[in-house]
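Let us work through a complete example step by step.
Step 1: write down the sequence.
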Amino acid sequence: MQRHLGQFVERDLAIKDSGKYRLTTTGSHVVDELTTYLETLERIETYRSFLGHLPDMDHTPDPRWLESASLVTATKENPQAPVHEYLDRVREFDTDRIRMISPVLSRLFHDVHADLAMDGVHTELVLDADMVERARDLNPVEFKIVVSVGVLDLYRHPESIGFGLTLGDEQLLMGAYDDDGHLQACVHATNDEFLQWSTDLFERYRDESELVESPFSLPFPFRKDT
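Step 2: predict the structure and record it as tokens.
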């Protein structure tokens, strides 16, 4: 111990005063940085199931932004846990606009967002080209209505999408998917830096996409009582 303390003194990380050692200003900075580093490593380990299923570093938030976030992951006992977390959180969104990027089509997701739409929430949704065509083919009539009633702006992205993102005014949900399109982890966060990063990511995808034009205009407004 004495030898290690002596090395700290030699490097101006600590000083010996009246037989006691205390950190210098430099040493205090080093301790702060090491503490942050260790906390970040611990957070990365905690969010391994989320971070490990994201496509690449460009689609990965800074682990420091996850400090106050919440994480729900799929398990053998409850593989649908992140799906139910997503649905519950979306129902709590207090906003008149939702911005969304999705790699999959899901009836569960569709239904919860349809409920919000009927309450007047407008959605901007980015899907890749294959998902747009799949949605059109699965239910052509419903597809025409959804993109015609003014509650949804649908964008066709030219490349495949490997993550999920849903943005409200003051909160976000980010989903990590496996290669089969199953949601493996769902993160809910309110961190301002995470929100800004997510907004920039959404806008980049939207700007790279083509707006799917309405095939016709309906002669009546879409209201909850219709």
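Step 3: interpret the result. The mean pLDDT is 88.
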